[in-house]
Amino acid sequence: MKVKTTTEQLTQLFVSLFTIILVLVNIAFLVISSAYIYHHAQERSQDIAEAVEENLNPEYDWTALLDAYLAKQEDDAITLTTPQGRTYYSEDAHETFKKIGYHRHYQSMVFTEKHIYFLNSATHHGFRINVALNIDELFALISWLFFTMLGINALAILISIPLIRRFAHKWSRPIQHMNAEIKDIRNGNRARTKITVPQQPMEIKNLARSFNNLLAFQHNALQREHQFVSDASHELKTPIAAIRGHVNLIKRHGQSHPEIVASSLNYIDKESQKMQALVNELLTLGRIDYSNSKITKIDLVKIISDVITEVSSVYPQKICTHLPEKLDFPIQTTDFRNIVHNLMGNAAKYSPANSEINISLLQKDMQVIFKVADHGMGIAPENRKKIFDRFYREDNSHSSKIAGSGLGLAIVKSEINKYHGKITIENNSPQGTIFTVYLPIEK
């Protein structure tokens, strides 16, 4: 089956609609004209019958009088039957009514082989009047007008096809331009990074904007992935090189200097643990957007309490909490645990050992609000957006002294985005940072 272009589809659609409208107009013309003929003939016949009724007299010789009530129209006829049963005929009325009697009547209309008649009957003081009107001329006029309309309609359809096709091509031109520009982008034309947005129609304008937004999103995603691959390669290259160095050291001098084996193995073990932690966090980042696990309501307070117990066993800071007894929220346990663990772990790593970390959780204005406040070194305002980038460290000179891969806050941001939430950063008093997570509650 041949796939039609937009121009062809629009042309076919509008020509079909135009044809249907013309057919409906013709049908309406036939109905209205037929009704006009019927009512016009009915009024004429009633006028003739009423004129006869006004002059009824049983003593008249109606044979000569009946013709006076008729116009000069051929085959018009009147019969008058007196109370005594005598019937008078206008000229040729006997033959006319005889012909009519052989044919079937349709709502006072009689169609013979050559003529069309309208019949009307009236009774007045025992007199019966029958009128038969020949309406051939009216039907001939209506038929001529109808066939003339058909010819005009056919001509209008033939003229409309190229005009409609031209307008359809004009209306579909923005789509054709979009298709051509998309092909350029697909074929690797780097000079084109977005398609042209037409001013009208509105649907095509919105489609072009949405496509440009999609291109921008895809471009940013590719840039992030390229940066991610570069950063991951850099982060993995250093420990791998160090491990390879110690392995070669053991191979060359292990037998002659056995004392270096233990220290090298200890270093290899430490670096492999760092690599394992890095790989696990990379896998966590990769699974966030593609997790299809069923989401059910869980108690957030219990998860926070469990994470506090873990962090307290590793870090010396005092953790102060302001938590409700229970707060249920629909989120995967692992997702919320990642948010809490990374924010609290970050606060502990960058805060003095004798400082406090304040944790709070509450529900307000149809959202869950989770806060982690520390008294550490703080974050410069210009770096607050960058800290959510993968592998970013604000103070690179001290990054090697602080455990971690630089992926923690990237994981937090991705988890929050997954649930359409947001995270803000504020200065703490007198120093430090406050991270606030907002998770909306769906109605």
TrEMBL record:
Pfam families reported for this sequence: HATPase_c, HisKA
EC number: 2.7.13.3
GO molecular function terms noted in the UniProt entry: phosphorelay sensor kinase activity
Keyword Transmembrane applies: yes
Membrane-crossing residue ranges in chain numbering: 12-38, 138-164
UniProt entry tagged with the keyword Phosphoprotein: yes
InterPro entries from the UniProt entry: HAMP_dom, HATPase_C_sf, HATPase_dom, His_kinase_dom, HisK_dim/P_dom, HisK_dim/P_sf, Sig_transdc_His_kin-like_C, TCS_sensor_his_kinase
Record-linked PROSITE patterns: HAMP (PS50885), HIS_KIN (PS50109)
Reactions mediated catalytically: ATP + protein L-histidine = ADP + protein N-phospho-L-histidine
GO cellular component: plasma membrane
Domain Histidine kinase: residue ranges: 231-443
Domain named HAMP: residues: 169-223
Its membrane topology: Multi-pass membrane protein
Key words, A-Z: Kinase, Membrane, Phosphoprotein, Transferase, Transmembrane, Transmembrane helix, Two-component regulatory system
Main location: membrane
Subcellular localization: Membrane
CDD domains, per database record: HisKA
Superkingdom of origin organism: Bacteria
Protein name, per record: histidine kinase
